[in-house]
Each structure stands twice: as structure tokens, then as C-alpha cells.
What does this fold into?
Amino acid sequence: VLRDEILFRLPESSRGDCPICCLPISLDNLKSTLQTCCSKLICNGCVYANMLRERGNNLKHRCPFCRHPMPKTKKENQKNRKKRVAVKDPVALRELGGEHYDKGDYSGAFPYLTEAAAFGDMYAHYSLSVMYGEGKGVEKDDEMAWYHLEEAAIGGHHLARYNLAVRERENGRFDRAVKHFIIAAKLGHDGSLRTLKDWYRFGLVSKENFAAALRGHQAAVDATKSPQREAAEAFQRRHGLHAAAQASTTSLKRNPEYRE
It folds into this structure.
């Protein structure tokens, strides 16, 4: 019972707040940037504002948060990450584990992700749920996969929450599935809201629950918006940066989402 109380508690947000503007980070990975120097996830609005300030004052390009000189090469990025890993930064540990994972080095990824998860990193928990579930780099263990999936969901990981809902639906536990879908929708996850809309049409979700999910979803999405972020997005579109980032992203390799 206590575990369920924790599991079905709505997290404050999915990806936390930008440490500069203090607004929630969008679920869209393309709308924020992870700085390897300080392991801070900065919204593109603040990155854009920092760029304008530097250009206007003829300043060197530095991290918007810690003011460390921005890396110019992949080697410099790796050097920054190595420093953060040395001090047991969970974000750096998770990212290094992710690099090993993306290369197919699952046994090399496992210890870094395990250590990051021990510090409470929800992304590491999610990656471990995939690894245990598929037997990548570790012996297949459905119980451990389920544990890490729940831990990721408790931490605010929207895809983990969505996947829990899908699995509960497959197990015939629709009441639990609805609860997970509602929480994911309130975190701003579009796929969960679409599922709830379909279930409402078929009478599987009450009008009150669907309305609450709809309001929560809109509030979560609106909370991530600001004039500064919209200006950054417009700048990216003008210069074709959004499309380039979208083509190069590899996050889905470690973040598979169940499809209906």
C-alpha cells in the first residue's frame, strides 16, 4: 500500500526546471541543452539569451550557468564529462553510461548507469529497466526491470510512466493503467492524453478523470512556454538548427516508447 502511495503520487515535473529562468524544462529534448561542464540542463531560451548577450558585448562563448568556456570539440566535451564523472556526478555517470550503450557496449554501460541510479537519476533507472528487460549487459530479470521502471516513473520520467500504463493494461489491470496514463498526461505527455481520449470515448475513463487529465496536460505544456523560449525556437527555425538537431538526436535508442 505504501509503495502504491509513492508510485501514484504526481511528481512536481518531469525534467525539472531550468536553473536560470526557473521554468519547467520541456519534454521535447530539442528544446534544451545539457552542459557537460556543470551537468546542468539549460532551456534553449536561456541559451539564446546568453548568445545574444555575448554577441552584443563581444564576449567569449561560455556556459550560460557556470560561465565555463564552452567546448569547441568532442574531445573537450569528453574531458569535461570525465571531470564530472570523477566527482561522481550522477548526470555525467548516466551520460557516460549512455555513450557506452549507444555503441553497443552494454556491459560497459551497466556500472555507470547503476551508479547513477543509486544517486536517484531517473534516466538511469529507465535505461536499466530496458537493459534488465532485454538482457542487455546483464542477465534478463523481469522483476528488476519492473523495479527500475517504477523508480523512473516515481522520479518523473514520463515514458516510464507511459510504459507502466501500457504493461498494466496488458495485464488486465485497467484501473492502475488509467492512473498511470493520467499522471503521464499531467506531466505533458501527448501519447497518454491521446490514449485517455480514446478510452473516454469507449467509456473506460470517467468524464471527471479525462477533464482533469486534459487540464493538467495543458497546464504542464503552458508552464514550459515563455517569450524568450519562443524567440529561441524562431531563431532555430530561421537557421535550420531545429531540423539539424532532430536529425542527429539519438535519445530514442535508450528511451523506447511503447506504441499502441
Observations:
- Residues 246-260 have pLDDT under 50 and may be disordered.
- The chain is about 60% helix and 0% strand.
- The two ends are 29 Å apart (CA to CA).
